[in-house]
Specification:
Layout lengths: L3 E3 L3 E2 L5 E2 L1 H11 L2 H18 L6 E4 L2 H4 L4 H12 L6 E6 L9 H11 L3 E7 L5 H7 L4 E4 L1 H5 L4 H13 L1
Parallel strand pairs: 1-4, 4-5, 5-6, 6-7
Antiparallel strand pairs: 2-3
Length: about 170
């Protein structure tokens, strides 16, 4: 195992599961994603502390979190409290997120990288921002969307996947 991904899930009191596509946008709109994100990072650090065999945990990060002025400082404090090095965490940014040159998000991404945290591009190929993001951010890893893997059984799909891998 080289890494595991922390995934946010919500189960209502009656046992009904709410998919992330439903509750994450609500959390982003209300600002609740900030506290949920800090909780997820703390939980990831706890898993790293309790399982020495886990080299790295990745956590999805919302653009709302990336715009929070104290986000990098808070993450640094969480790492310090847990006694975890930043190089044991990776933050995943989804390609669909809007990150522009000279944006506050780019500044905070650099601050997170200074903490040793790896920055990964998630779901590459699902949106229109992929190439621009590759130009703007020095990603440590690019996760190609699974739809390209599933389509790789056809000649065209195989060629497309091969070309994406060559590109990145």
């Amino acid at each position: 195992i080289s890494a595991v991904e922390a995934l946010m899930r919500l189960r209502m009191r009656d046992g009904v599961e709410v998919p992330p596509q439903q509750f994450i946008p609500v959390a982003e709109k209300t600002g609740g994603i900030i506290q949920l994100g800090y909780w997820a990072i703390r939980e990831a650090c706890c898993k790293l502390l309790t399982n020495a065999d886990l080299p790295l945990v990745s956590v999805n990060v919302s653009p709302v979190q990336l715009r929070e002025p104290s986000f990098a400082d808070e993450v640094g404090a969480i790492l310090s409290e847990a006694g975890i090095r930043g190089d044991r965490l990776a933050f995943e940014i989804t390609e669909g997120q809007r990150v522009e040159a000279k944006s506050v998000e780019l500044h905070f991404i650099c601050r997170l990288q200074a903490l040793g945290i790896a920055i990964w591009l998630d779901d590459f190929g699902t949106g229109f921002a992929g190439l621009a993001l590759l130009r703007l951010v020095d990603f440590d890893l690019v996760k190609i969307d699974r739809s390209f893997l599933y389509a790789s059984s056809s000649r065209r799909g195989h060629m497309m996947l091969r070309n994406i891998v060559r590109l990145i």
